[in-house]
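Re: that chain you flagged

S.,

Sorry for the slow reply, it's been a week of failed gels. I finally had a moment to sit down with the sequence you sent. For the record, here it is as I used it:
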Amino acid sequence: MHKAEIIGRILSDLPNGEDGGVACSEAYRARVTESLHERLPEGQIQTCDDVKDMSVECCSSCHEVDSEHLFLETLPGGQVAWICCAVHRKLFLERAAADDSANLASRNGFPVVMGRMHQEYVAPRNEMNEPAN
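Prediction finished late last night. Pasting the structure tokens below so you have them in one place:
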């Protein structure tokens, strides 16, 4: 998969209000797009679909809720990959275990989620949750 395909998939998965729920604002969509353009490299990028033979079930939260926050990693074979926390944990088990040990307690009052502070995942409410027009 390439950068444009990943960005397109993530943007199409963001809430749009068609089901009667809230929709992400254009400002939030623009911020996600800009962030992904900065983070993702050009060229071929492996995804969780490319490593399904590892007998690991993907994380539904990563794929359905926070897909713009997946892990960008260089795989042991040298390929770049955009992967969920479950695949990341399987591929980088030793490092994941060290991260978990270091992050057992919350920092600055924010719970630690998948080795990162939850604060990093929370978009400003007025940008992400504006009603659909």
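What I noticed first: Residues 26-39 form the longest helix (14 residues).

Talk soon,
D.
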